[in-house]
């Protein structure tokens, strides 16, 4: 309505106004009557209320019928009385904000309260009118409760569908199994139309490289021929088909359990195949490993014994499996030991301390290794090295013990013989007068005899297990270490004398290489060297004496001899003889002085 409607929907429904009716008045009355009929007989609830007070001024029959209030009750109410309190403030704001009252309004959908307190949803439209000289609003109240409920159901269903699609998409692209959809073409060929993320993860082929491609461009032989035959079988029988295939892909050779299900159209023709592949590559590898392990356990030379995990106290875990090596080692068959405890192998000489250590480890669910004497079925003793390990199930609960047992009797006898040999060797090394020590290939001292303690002034507990170079960085000098290195590298015996500043002594050293390191024998030769040097010094002095004797006395002796020969001449005069005798006396005196000096030097040499 473009104008406010002036109507005589008033108390004077007959039109008695105190004026004579005329033609114009007659038309108004006719219009009012038609409007009144439309108001009263409207199939939708209608009411009129004052805009200033919100007091209801009139209601039609449908409003009375639909809401349950009587006409008198309605006329005593305001439009707030049939509304929830939460909406009143918003309604007031809307009505107070009306600026142009000369038009129709679509107020929207609101909640109303029937007389029985039932809440309904009402779509409200209104018309501003003048009623009994009051600014009023005539409203049509269209109950859309069921419509809104149906609409909400549609929205809920749409949301559920959307959620379902999102969940399916999430599942489709996050499941670990490969999922694919293949179209069955009219020519009998098969084309990929969808693959999930797992397809790319497992095969290494991206989705963009697969979608729209025929399967023969993706699946290599011989898997292609197998797949086509299985697809054809599923289509022909119109039922799910499952098989296992192994196929090489960029990510490696994969083994999968494949299932395809035919999708039929309204004509019962297969138009698509939905497939899934469960990657069992790891499972197949585990099976192969288990078969290999089973073969190893069956054929190994070591005895394998499996027991229950509990009880750890009496009667103790029972044996549930032994391999062939166990029978060969002990003489017991599997039937003779299964159901019994490993104690049947123990006897008087079984090391109780080692068994106690094993028991303590078992109670802590820890692995343990011991070497003890066991007894064969015939009572014969033998040494075994036994390694026991707990086995847990997939939940982490320990269910069994596995014992690997190796016959080390020969090794133990050899060790005992070697220990005896070592003891004999040690007795010898401790009794010799030479110092002795041994080092391994890392220069670590592993033996140091008593004489070495005395000579080098270091107790063995301070040196065994230490690097010789760290203990004696200057011992016995750089040349010594050169001999050691040469013995290591050339595997040759080294013999040398050297002086040790660390102890201020001279040593005669013999170095013998072996596969395990070096054996070093050394003796203190300081006194011997000092004695030798003293003798050499004395000899030097004696040589000096001899030199003097041979070089200083000889001229004088020759002179005397010459003078004596001249004296024998009979033709000499007395003066000449006297002169010769004087010369002879002088030579004798000089010779005597030299002899005296030689004697004195000889005495000094002796002292």
TrEMBL record:
Transmembrane segments: none annotated. Residues 366-420 form the PAC domain. Residues 1-13 have a biased composition (Basic and acidic residues). Gene3D superfamilies: PAS domain (3.30.450.20). Residues 1-25 are annotated as: Disordered. InterPro entries: Biofilm_reg_signaling (IPR052155), PAC (IPR001610), PAS (IPR000014), PAS-assoc_C (IPR000700), PAS-like_dom_sf (IPR035965), PAS_4 (IPR013656), PAS_fold (IPR013767). Pfam families: PAS, PAS_4, PAS_8, PAS_9. One of its GO terms (biological process) is regulation of DNA-templated transcription. Residues 31-102, 164-238, 289-341, 421-491 form the PAS domain. PANTHER family: BIOFILM ARCHITECTURE MAINTENANCE PROTEIN MBAA (PTHR44757:SF2), DIGUANYLATE CYCLASE DGCP (PTHR44757). This is PAS domain S-box protein. The lineage of its organism: Bacteria, Pseudomonadati, Bacteroidota, Sphingobacteriia, Sphingobacteriales.
């Amino acid at each position: 309505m473009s104008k406010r409607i002036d109507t005589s929907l008033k108390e004077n429904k007959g039109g008695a106004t105190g004026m004579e009716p005329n033609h114009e008045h007659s038309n108004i009355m006719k219009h009012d009557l038609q409007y009144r009929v439309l108001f009263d007989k409207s199939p939708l609830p209608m009411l009129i209320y004052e805009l200033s007070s919100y007091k209801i001024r009139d209601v039609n029959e449908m409003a009375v019928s639909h809401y349950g209030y009587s006409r008198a009750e309605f006329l005593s109410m305001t439009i707030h009385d049939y509304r929830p309190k939460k909406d009143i403030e918003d309604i007031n704001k809307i009505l107070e904000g009306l600026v142009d009252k000369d038009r129709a309004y679509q107020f929207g959908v609101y909640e109303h309260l029937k007389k029985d307190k039932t809440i309904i949803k009402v779509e409200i439209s209104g018309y501003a009118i003048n009623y009994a000289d009051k600014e009023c609003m005539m409203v049509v109240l269209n109950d859309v409760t069921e419509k809104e409920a149906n609409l909400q159901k549609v929205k809920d269903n749409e949301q559920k569908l959307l959620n379902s699609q999102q969940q399916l998409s999430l599942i489709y692209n996050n499941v670990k199994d490969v999922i694919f959809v293949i179209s069955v073409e009219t020519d009998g060929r098969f084309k990929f139309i969808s693959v999930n993320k797992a397809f790319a993860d497992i095969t290494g082929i991206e989705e963009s490289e697969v979608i729209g491609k025929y399967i023969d461009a993706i699946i290599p032989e011989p898997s292609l021929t197998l797949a086509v035959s299985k697809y054809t079988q599923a289509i022909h029988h119109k039922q799910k088909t499952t098989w296992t295939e192994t196929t090489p892909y960029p990510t490696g050779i994969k083994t999968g359990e494949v299932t395809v299900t035919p999708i039929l159209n309204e004509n019962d023709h297969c138009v698509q195949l939905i497939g899934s592949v469960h990657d069992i590559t790891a499972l197949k590898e585990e099976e192969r490993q288990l078969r290999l392990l089973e073969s190893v356990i069956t054929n190994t030379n070591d005895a394998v014994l499996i027991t229950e995990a509990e009880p750890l106290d009496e009667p103790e875990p029972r044996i549930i499996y032994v391999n062939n090596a166990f029978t060969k080692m002990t003489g017991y068959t599997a039937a003779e030991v299964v159901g019994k405890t490993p104690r049947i192998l123990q006897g008087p000489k079984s090391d109780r301390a080692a068994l106690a250590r094993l028991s303590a480890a078992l109670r802590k669910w820890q692995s343990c290794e011991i070497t003890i004497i066991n007894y064969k079925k015939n009572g014969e003793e033998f040494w075994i090295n036994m390694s026991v390990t707990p086995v847990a199930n997939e939940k982490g609960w320990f269910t069994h013990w596995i014992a690997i047992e190796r016959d080390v009797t020969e090794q133990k006898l050899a060790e005992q013989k070697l220990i005896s040999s070592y003891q004999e060797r040690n007795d010898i090394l401790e009794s010799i007068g030479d110092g002795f020590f041994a080092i391994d290939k890392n220069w670590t001292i592993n033996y140091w005899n008593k004489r070495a303690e005395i000579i080098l002034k270091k107790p063995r507990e301070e040196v065994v297990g230490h690097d010789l170079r760290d203990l004696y960085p200057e011992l016995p000098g750089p040349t010594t270490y050169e001999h050691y290195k040469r013995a290591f590298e050339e595997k040759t015996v080294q013999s040398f004398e050297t002086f040790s500043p660390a102890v201020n002594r001279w040593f005669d050293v013999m170095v013998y290489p072996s596969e395990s390191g070096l054996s070093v024998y050394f003796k203190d030769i300081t006194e011997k060297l000092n004695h030798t040097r003293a003798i050499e010094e004395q000899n030097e002095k004696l040589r000096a004496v001899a030199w003097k004797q041979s070089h200083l006395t000889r001229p004088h002796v020759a002179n005397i001899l010459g003078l004596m020969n001249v004296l024998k001449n009979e033709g000499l005069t007395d003066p000449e003889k006297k002169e010769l005798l004087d010369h002879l006396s002088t030579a004798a005196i000089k010779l005597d002085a030299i002899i005296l000096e030689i004697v004195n030097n000889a005495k000094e040499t002796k002292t």
